[in-house]
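Exercise: predict the fold of this chain.
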Amino acid sequence: MLKIENLSKTFNANTVNEKKAIQNLNITINDGDFITVIGGNGAGKSTLLNLISGTIPSDEGTITIDNIDISKQKEYKRAAYIGRVFQDPMTGTCADLSIEENLSLAKRRGKKRTLRKGLTSEEKKEYKSLLGSLNLGLETRVSSKVGLLSGGQRQALTLLMATLVRPKLLLLDEHTAALDPKTAAKVLELTTKIVEKDKLTTLMITHNMKDALKYGNRLIMMMDGKIILDISGEEKAKLTVNDLLKLFEQATGEEVVNDRMLLV
């Protein structure tokens, strides 16, 4: 579903602040893969997602989604293939619009705009049903402005919006990091439910090693803009946090004092 070849990105090239964020990165992701992505601060995790989504341009390399070369496409065109949820719950929704209006915008992602009525009665019924599946009571508040929702409710809504039109690729950029543990667990449970139901190809950055091991069928670890570990299937299923730390040490030759050093 996703193929990345020789991808590179350098910020502030040829200056004292030069940073090689992604270095000749190659990866092939199969249809239906649910990949958790871990790595320390500055490892290149979010930069990788930004390059895939087109938020920033790459210096070199190609990005192909479902045999479509999107390497030179603008971000708004890639939105037809990609759904994304950010770390900040306020990022993925429009606070001044209602819940149903936000969903209506998401429904039309990647499509040409017309002058027909923006929100039909059939859509309203569909949105109420979908919101009811979240078990957050939002189906009774479809006309409420999104700005009145809690962070967890907004993040759940953003996740629903990102997958309302089934994307070829779902990008989750530490989408539970800003939530309290109980709410984060709820959003992760919802994430798993949606990903499994629609068999979505997913890349999920996480700062939590336990979550990285618990969710998905494949795990990649990044460091200095490179993938240093790629583990899947039974091998991943048997891993513990201590195993993962040892693998990091073997791959880098560096000792990890604690998992926060690795995943901050």
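Check your answer against the key: The mean pLDDT is 88.
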